[in-house]
Amino acid sequence: MATMSPAPAEPDVPLLEVRDLEVEFRTRDGVAKAVDRVSFSVGAGETLAVLGESGSGKSVTAQAVMGILDSPPGFVTGGQVLFRGADLLTAGAEERRRVRGARMAMIFQDALSALNPVLTVGAQLAEMFRVHEGRSRKESRAKAVELMERVRIPAARTRVNDYPHQFSGGMRQRIMIAMALALEPDLIIADEPTTALDVTVQAQVMDLLAELQREYRMGLVLITHDLGVVADVADRIAVMYAGRIMETAPVHDLYKNPAHPYTRGLLDSIPRLDRKGHELYAVKGLPPNLMAIPPGCPFHPRCPRVRDICLADRPEPAPLTGADGRELPGRTSACHFRKDELHA
Amino acid sequence: MPEPYSQEDAVAPAGAGGRIELATTDTGTVESPPAPAPPPDGPAAKPRGLWADAWHELRRNPVFVVSALMIVFLVLIAIWPRLITDGNPLTCDLARSQQGSAPGHPFGFDTQGCDVYTRTVYGARASVTVGVCATAGAALLGSLLGGLAGFFGGWTDSLFSRVADVFFGIPIILGGLVFLSVVTSDTVWPVVGFIVLLGWPQISRIARGSVITAKQNDYVQAARALGAGNLRMLLRHVAPNAVAPVIVVAMIALGTYIALEATLSFLGVGLRPPTVSWGIDISNAAPQIRNAPHMLLWPAGALSITVLAFIMLGDAVRDALDPKLR
């Protein structure tokens, strides 16, 4: 596929565009629709945060985009994953393998389990250069040290020979980041990169990631359930629920003025200093079982705004218009009452 | 591991504060330029990899030391029996048939008048050869087929696992009587071949299970996400993390294979004279147990101790490789 080569992208083709992606898990107990008609796009140098509770399909979406979905039981049943305009889902296995790591890379949640315990970190970093660029052992090793210095691991020259368990959690996550950055990919998908870390380290790792992203002008898809992480680094947010996208918006618009009751619920459940002494709001109920997603709007059993139409008719993501009747750029909401929500 | 803030802080222009903090963790020894001498066994001791760690553990395990010494001794006399005997196991004097202990012949004589001590020493060679070769063969074949089955799953798994089940279902003694009475030879190879043929399914099951566990690890997924191909993932990320249980089972199997060789030889279908084997000697001695118990005692004792040594070694290695048992 010629379009896969690092040709200068046309300005109107986003780096990654996912269209109507559908993923289902076929298990003995039935079929779970983990991702249902999900669409989003990320440009070069842009950060898209995909936000959602556990089981909302964030990670599955990431795996489907990367092409590392465990199959069976997971199957991509529809949609397109366009990387610089070329559909990865129709590309051959070898083609996809070459894209992974070199053009798009992934950072995993728990770096301890995502690094091979029997190999030194240097060997694992060097592997990136040996696999994709066929460099010599010595060259790859020098590049590995360079990478470790890049993600600011102190004494990289000696630590390159250490095993993953000899590093602290934050340092391990830096090594994961270094592995993802090794070949300077165009796109990085970070699946909850800071969830396994404690709060102070979280901020440092996030800052490092954001800084490196700016430096390399990469697209970043940040998958998280942490609204706090998102606010600082993301440009745009996509909120997922039960395998669907509920709302997309530029980050500040979303925080200031959500247009979906689910987003509003999430924002209201953040503890805030100016509401000390009040009981913390929580979205009532539990996310639905993906084998039995409610008809109509999947959020209706938990929605404070539910009406009859929500039980029968499934709302699709649709653009929002402001008070002056003009379309708000980059904003969609999958709620029948999106206007009322927006102006509430 | 609790994470002191200052450890991460040391990433910024690493001040002295950061260094001191680092030196208190297990990462410290490689950090600070004037590295403080680590206490020999404290958490600051030079960290080791899995195998170095297992070796460290093994050296202080008396079960390992004893069994390893026994096995080293056994292998030595299997290679150079003349280290401890001048006799010839095939030089026999019928006049001394079934006689007891005599000067220069501490274990007495068997029915043919051969020296039991010399025959017992020379018997180690057959046992060790069969045990080691059969284990190597079964482990290679079993981990190859089991590993591929576990890694690829699907029809590969079904095919290999069903074939393994077929061989697993063959009764060993019955199979041995049939197979070895057809394939006969003066060498040990038919016996080795037969044990490999019936032994590999046990190893392949272990290898399959252990590969399935290893391939579900996040780092295999991560390697895939970073563009590693199947072969690289299997050899570099899955196999090294799946090999420990296979090694343990193979070591324990080695002991049982030696016993199996003796059993087959006892039944007359294993090794055949003039090969010297404990199984053959036990077989010859069994009918004479009332007249000359010494004929049975020595080869049977040697066999038991050898099997025990290998099983103990396997146990010790398992304990060392499995961190959960520590």
Automatic annotation (TrEMBL), chain A:
The keyword tRNA processing does not apply. It is found in: Cell membrane. Signal peptide: none annotated. CDD domains: ABC_NikE_OppD_transporters. The keyword Lyase does not apply. Belongs to the ABC transporter superfamily. This is ABC transporter ATP-binding protein. It comes from Streptomyces meridianus.
From TrEMBL, chain B:
It is a multi-pass membrane protein. It comes from the Bacteria. InterPro entries: BP-dependent_transpt_permease, MetI-like, MetI-like_sf, OppC_N. It is found in: Cell membrane. Residues 33-42 have a biased composition (Pro residues). Residues 1-47 are annotated as: Disordered. Keywords: Cell membrane, Membrane, Transmembrane, Transmembrane helix, Transport. CDD domains: TM_PBP2. The chain crosses the membrane at residues 63-80, 128-151, 163-182, 242-260, 296-317. Residues 124-314 form the ABC transmembrane type-1 domain. The keyword Acyltransferase does not apply. PANTHER family: ABC TRANSPORTER PERMEASE PROTEIN (PTHR43386:SF6), OLIGOPEPTIDE TRANSPORT SYSTEM PERMEASE PROTEIN APPC (PTHR43386). Belongs to the binding-protein-dependent transport system permease family. This is ABC transporter permease. It comes from Streptomyces meridianus.
